[in-house]
Structure formats: structure tokens, C-alpha cells
Amino acid sequence: MVSKAVTKYVHALHLKKYRLRHGAFLVEGGKSVLELLSSGLQTERVFVTAEFALKLPAQLAQSLVEVVSEDELTRLGTLATNNTALAIARLPAEPPLLPGATSGLFLALDQVRDPGNLGTLIRLADWYGLPGVVLSETCADPWAPKTVAATMGSFTRVPVWQRELPGWLSSLPAGLPVYGADLHGDNVHGLTLQPQGVLVMGSESHGLTPEVEACLTQRLHIPGRGQAESLNVAISAAILLDNFHRNG
Predict the structure, then answer these.
(1) 3-class secondary-structure state, position 204
(2) Which of helix, strand or coil describes residue 207?
(3) What does DSSP say about strands 160-163 and 85-90: parallel, antiparallel, or unpaired?
């Protein structure tokens, strides 16, 4: 049985203020936990079912592992059901290399408040090998359980910075391109884009904030032929990122 004190601690980590207070976050689901354990990120504790315990790395210290029932595991976490694993990990320190000081295409997100979308965008950054993701202060928490789960393990590989976005964009070197999606922008299918600079994506409900929009050097439009009002922000980002990398 998981002690009341440990249960209280795990439940506290469902909330951002306690994640910040304790410097820890939750990782749920077998795949994500295995990614965590192979990543080098510091792990405090791992809760597993007896069946999943057989899949843990042999070198993992047994003192970190607690075998629990599926019901206990589900009650600890945020998933509707969990029959594999849940881990407590230490929040990583912010990466020392500041965006803008290196080459490549960074993804910047402005007011993306849905944790599922944010996790998918981090996963996209991993797929395309981007050097990192910059979040506005109004984005969802990258270490929320739903965000971490949606990354499907990419949270271990993609550097994330949180910045006051207009100020950060304004501080970038002159001549560095800053792209953003816009219904009145250039048809992305007719452009030859290089994966350098920053691609900024806003929430699908409100788009980019005016202060961020003012920092763009080029606006990109994804042409469509149907009647849908808009595209999900993660789908839009995937289409745009593919156009940046299609000639690579």
C-alpha cells in the first residue's frame, strides 16, 4: 500500500504551484516512464504494476521502485486507467543555451493553453529535430501531466524555455527571420523555406497576440479548399514545419 504521505505528495504534483514548490513533476504511462528512465533526467520514485516491473531497466535502483496494484496506480495519477507505471521526476534546470545564439529553426508558442496541443507541438519539435521550443508565459505548463503524456516521451529530448515572448523576439539578432501563420500571408506551398530562425504559432482561438505579431518578418498561409474555419494549432505547425524541411 502507498502511504498517505506519499499519496498526498503525488496528488500535490497534479497542480503547477506544487510542482514548482517541490521541483518535481509526474510522468504517467509505461512508454513515457521508460523514456524518462533512459534519459538521464533525475527520477525520485517509480510506481509500477507487478507485470510492468519486469520491463524496468536492470540497473535501476530497487530502492526507487514500489510495486502497486492497478487500482492504486490509477488513483495516484491523472489517467482514467493506468496498468503500467507512474514516476516522479525532478524538474530539469532550464537549458543554458539561449535561443537566438545558435542556428536552426526554433518553435515559439504564443498563448497555447491546451496541454494536449502543447505536448503534441513538443513532439513535433522532436520529430523534426528542432533545437528547442520557446513558450510565452501564458502557455500551458510544459510539465503538467497531460502535456508530458502528449509528448509521448519527447519531453526528455526537447529543450524548453519560457520567456516574455515579444521582448525575446525583439532581442533576436537583426536579420534573423521570424515566421508566423496568417490567413493573409504568403502561400507556403509556393515558397522555398530554410529551417533557420523562429516559427511562431498562436492559439487556434485567438491567433498571435498583437505584440508578437508585430515581431514577424514573414507571414505564412496554408491554403485550403474546404469550409473549415481553422486548423488545429498542432496540425498547422506540422504542415509548416514540413515545408521548412522538405528540401533538406
Answers:
(1) coil
(2) strand
(3) unpaired
Q: Look at residues 234, 215, 233, 224 and name the one whose alpha carbon lies nearest to residue 189.
A: 224
User: 220: helix, coil or strand?
Assistant: strand
Radius of gyration of the chain (CA): 20
Distance CA 34, CA 89 (A): 12
Q: From CA 201, how far away is CA 53, in angstroms rounded?
A: 40
Answer whether 169's CB lies under 8 Å from 50's CB. Answer: no
- Classified as helix, coil or strand, 43 is strand
- In terms of DSSP H, where are the helices of the chain? 4-12, 16-22, 30-37, 50-53, 70-76, 115-127, 145-151, 165-170, 210-213, 233-245
Decide if 12 contacts 62 (C-beta within 8 A). no
pLDDT, tens digit, 9 for 90 and up, residues 52-101 = 999 999 999 999 999 999 999 999 999 999 999 999 999 999 888 776 66
Which residues make Cβ contacts (< 8 Å) with residue 130, sequence separation at least 6? 104, 105, 106, 107, 158, 241
Q: How confident is the model at residue 248 (pLDDT cuts 50, 70, 90)?
A: low
**CA torsion through residues 158, 19, 136, 241, sign:** positive
Residue pLDDT, tens place only, 96-151: 877 666 689 999 999 999 999 999 999 999 999 999 999 999 999 999 999 999 99
Q: For every residue of 130-153, which 3-state class applies, written as one string?
A: CCCEEEECCCCCCCCHHHHHHHCC
Distances (CA, A) of 86 to 44, 53, 116, 157: 11, 11, 18, 19
CB-CB contact of 133 with 12 (8 Å)? no
